[in-house]
Amino acid sequence: MRLTLVLGAGLTAAFLGAALLSFLWTPEPVSGVNIAARLHPPDSVNLLGTDHFGRDILSMIMVGARTSLGVAVVAVAVGMGFGVPLGLWAAARAGGWLDEIIMRGNDLIFAFPSLVIAILITAVFGPGAVNAIIAIGIFNIPVFARLTRSGALSLWQRDFILAARVSGKSAPRISIEHILPNLTNLLIVQGTIQFSLGILAEAGLSYVGLGAQPPVPSWGRMLAEAQTMVAIAPHVAIVPGMAIVLMVLGLNLLGDGLRDALDPRLKDRVP
Amino acid sequence: MSLLDIRALGVTIRGIPVLHDLSLSVARGEIVALTGESGSGKSMTALATIGLLPQGAATSGQILLDGTDLLTLDEAQMCARRGNAMGMVFQEPMTALNPLQTIGRQVGETLRLHRAGETSLSSAQADALLAETLARVGLPPDRVPPDRYPHQLSGGQRQRVVIAMAIIRRPALLIADEPTTALDVTTQARILDLLKGLVTDYDMGLLMITHDLAVVARMADRIAVLRKGEIVEQGAARDVFRQAGHPYTRALFDASGHRATLPKVPQRGPLLRVQDVSRDYPMRRTGLFRPRPVFQALKGISFDIRRGERLGLVGESGSGKSTLIRAILGLDPISGGQITLDGRPVRAGDPATRRHMQAVFQDPYSSFNPRHSVARLISEPFHLLEDPPTGAARQAAIAEVMTAVNMSPKDAEKYIHAFSGGQRQRIAIARALIIRPDLILFDEAVSALDVRVRAQILDLIADLSPRYGLAYLFVRHDLSVVRGVTDRVLVMQAGEIVEQGPTGQVLENPAHPYIRELVDAAPRLPEFGAQALTQQGVWDDA
Which residues in chain B are contacts of A165 at CB distance < 8 A? Predict the structure, then answer.
């Protein structure tokens, strides 16, 4: 039953390791254009073959993982950094006008299709990794705000919160000391899921040319550049496609596994 | 022949034994009470009988219902029997009902499910049976229409719906798992009467599971006392009450009737003064330009608590007790009147008055943050002090209160999940004591505890009060426990104090009809010995 967790953690760790390794070493430099060696199928020299400029695809996947993971991590951090405090704040003032403003603001963001707005933002402010992060991050805020608020609302009903209030603690202090630590499981699981969605969104933005710009390798753009060559060199499209699939699969499995492992109903251990 | 015959039943859950060699029988028209403390396996016996054991459970032995071994049946065969041959009533009527379906539909569901059976009913017959059953459980369709939703009913009415669901097919066996534990005393009495009447009318066997020995005494023909998955004593109710053979049974009886010894203490000057306090809740407007109607939760409450005084507050759910407690603690604002502690008004943002008050809540399982150590939990009220002790002084304070509640100071290093309900309630009292308050509010503080643990906690409370010069307000929904731990009692009904006076006097000679009703409704525990029983008139035919 812990298979999903192990598999998910393994896949995630493999991509993370590859991304970190790419800072120090890649099989070949990613900007090493070698037209003579273009569109080589995978062999012993280029393990995953070469693209239409003769660049080593394995190296590009490794550096591309860096871009994908980096964008997704920061986007999730933006979502958590704004969403969690907003959710805690709304829950502490549940039913008041502040709660209404925060939650209706969330509804407003939710009302727009995220990828379309992300395209709008990057189109207006110019393509690039930073704008992609902002575009994806904004749509993570309401997800975390809602999750935090609903989790916090049920915690506010518990007697230990009443005890803390009897001890004269203020709502912000209770939120940080008592509510937030009891929400960590929830946030870790949701964070993993949003992380995989972030990877997918980044790939989508790069695919339409609004993500990381050349020459920085990115999985989505590799896929976009490969699509005209699918017939003659399928590996050029299959490899980045598989990278996206495996990375997202790994993160989803990790999220599922963590949810099972951290489920309080299945948990019987020291917190 | 018995209707239900449980023979040498054993149940293990993931290899851990929960029931061992349990034999029990229920005949038609008989009420058998299965009693014991929490964790003794009472509910597991019921779930095994109805075939709803949790995953990972393995059974041995036999459960014969009318001669058929239920443990050998498959799920489809069990489904045919559930609702049909045996019905079950659960503890919590709110969660046992679907909030989105009308009560008529939910009660009728059992009929529709079993319509394919040999006694299939026409639609008109089904409706007639539904109306008859609802009327029988005290929900006549002209007064309580079947198209009501559960949230429109009171707790007692909901439990009647659950009973109607269980009996609509006139099952031979009815299993009731703590059917009145979640209800008020007066409601409890009516539901118990209803169950007793149904057993006679329909010649059912009733297996009743309850921890409350007073309820057992009122209802049961036979008693089985369960301890750690084994029946330690079983027999006719009057024999068991007259001469409990097993020391465990005797301990349970002693604890149920336990009264703490309350030392006389000098009471000095007023401490808390509640003057004409009211609390209104605005309700939904009835029209666009009409004023909002208000619901008066508290209607001009006035009383005093003197230093060192032990005051009881009794009232059924909805009487305004919780609103009053929250108002006293300064957690919720009041609409009118004044609450002063030591002459200073109690306000939300004022630690100066609040540091003289603490509270102990009902549920020992939700009153602690599971992620903090006990030391951190019980030192939380230090937040109210201007200059909280640190380092060695803090350690000493923690050790002192832990010792005061008969726990080891070393326990402070552990996390709360390591402790039982009774230990947790001791820790809650330690948390309340640590800033040496003048007043502690005990909000149903012993309601969730087993009788033996409850007796210990009551003793502890009675003992701490003079040692710490402590006044307390002991809030409770029924009168039985209040008797042992309070000097004076207030009785609340519908937001008003309807009677107050010395505890003994109020309970012996209640002036107000409501209190008379409360006193009469409370099931009583017969005292030991045949003489005591006949004197009390419990079994006059003895």
Answer: 329, 331
* One domain for residues B166 and B188: no
Are B60 and B207 in the same domain? yes
Contact at CB, A159 and B366, closer than 8 angstroms? yes
3-state secondary structure of A18: helix
Residue B417 with chain A: CB contacts under 8 Å: 270-271
What are the structural domain ranges in chain A?
Answer: 3-23+58-262
Q: Which of A160, A168, A181 sits opposite B368 (nearest CB)?
A: A160
B156 in the same domain as B23: no
What is the rounded distance in angstroms from the CA atom of residue B479 to the CA atom of residue B491? 9
**Which value does ipTM take for this structure?**
0.74
Q: Tell me: the pLDDT tens digits for B47-92?
A: 899 888 888 888 899 899 888 888 888 888 888 888 888 889 888 8
Specify whether B373 is located in the same domain as B500: yes
A160/B354 Cβ within 8 A? no
Closest residue on chain A to B358 (Cα): A166
Report the CATH number that the domain containing residue B352 is assigned in CATH: 3.40.50.300
Do B122 and B104 fall into the same domain? Answer: yes
**Fold topology of A3-23+58-262:** MetI-like fold (1.10.3720)
Distance CA B526, CA B223 (A): 14
Give the whole-angstrom CA distance, residue A248 versus residue A196: 5
Domain range for B187? 1-85+175-257
Is A44's Cβ below 8 Å from some Cβ in B? no
Of B87, B122, B129, B130, nearest in space to B105 by CA: B130
Q: Which residues of B touch A (CB under 8 A)?
A: 329, 331, 351, 354-355, 357-359, 361-363, 366-371, 377, 380-384, 415, 417, 428, 431
- Are residue B317 and residue B424 in the same domain, yes or no? yes
- In whole angstroms, give the CA distance from residue B271 to residue B492: 21
**Beta-strand pair B205-209/B173-177:** parallel
Contacts of A187 in chain B (CB under 8 A): none
| Co-location of B314 and B428 in the same domain | yes
Sheet of strand B488-493, all strands in order from the earlier edge strand to the far edge: B357-360, B439-443, B471-476, B310-314, B488-493, B496-502
Does residue B446 sit in the same domain as residue B491? yes
Identity of the residue in B357, B415, B431 whose CB atom sits nearest the CB atom of A163: B431
**What digits encode the pLDDT tens for the residues B126-169?**
888 888 889 888 888 888 888 888 888 888 888 899 999 888 88
